[in-house]
Structure formats: C-alpha cells, structure tokens
C-alpha cells in the first residue's frame, strides 16, 4: 500500500540525513517507526459488553419475568405491604 505523509521541512531533512547515514531507505525507516509506535500504543479500551460479559444473563429472579411482569410486580407489592403491616 502506498501512503503519502506530509512532514515539516525540518523533520524531512532529519529523516533524509538519518537514512543516508544508516544506509536505509525512507520507506523502510518509516515502516519500522510506525510499527514501533503501534506496538507501544495501548490497545483500544474494552467495550461495555466485554467488561460485563461475566455478569450478563445472571439474573436470579423468575425465568418468566418479562412475560409475567405485572403478576410479579403485584406479588412484590403485596410482599412489601405485608411486611409493613406485620411490623409493630
């Protein structure tokens, strides 16, 4: 793949001098520099899914909660109010 890179004149001059002194081509030095930069850059942050993958699907409630949500909500409401009435 061919890529064009625009460099400030000072950086281009330094690159050319380095390549001439080392006997290496500009493309070779640029490839090595880019590979070293990418290797030292931290990986992309983990996604929300990968961070919580061990937690997803671990609901401890009724298996039919979505389908029977009104009945379960009514049961929870009744239990809450039964505790209030039982407390002295």
Please tell me what the overall shape is: rod-shaped
Percent of residues in beta strands: under 5%
* Portion in helices: 55-70%
Poorly predicted spans: none
The biggest sheet amounts to: none
Give the count of helical stretches.
4
For the termini, the CA-CA separation is 79 Å
Estimated radius of gyration: 32 Å
pLDDT averaged over residues? 86
Total E-strand runs:
0
Describe what this molecule looks like in 3D.
The chain has helices at residues 9-22, 26-40, 48-52, 69-86. The protein has a domain at 9-40. By secondary structure, the protein is mainly alpha-helical. The chain contains four helices and no strands. The mean pLDDT is 86.
Task: Tell me the layout of helices and strands.
Elements lengths: L8 H14 L3 H15 L7 H5 L16 H18 L2
Give structural attributes.
single chain, 88 residues, mainly alpha, 4 helices, rod-shaped
Give a brief rundown of this model.
Helix content is 59%, strand content 0%.
């Amino acid at each position: 793949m061919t890529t064009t890179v625009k460099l400030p004149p000072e950086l281009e001059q330094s690159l050319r001098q380095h390549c001439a002194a080392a006997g290496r081509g500009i493309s070779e030095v640029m490839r090595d520099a880019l590979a070293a930069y990418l290797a030292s850059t931290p990986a992309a942050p983990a996604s929300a899914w990968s961070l919580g993958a061990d937690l997803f699907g671990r609901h401890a409630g009724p298996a039919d909660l979505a389908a029977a949500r009104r009945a379960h909500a009514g049961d929870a409401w009744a239990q809450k109010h039964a505790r209030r009435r039982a407390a002295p």
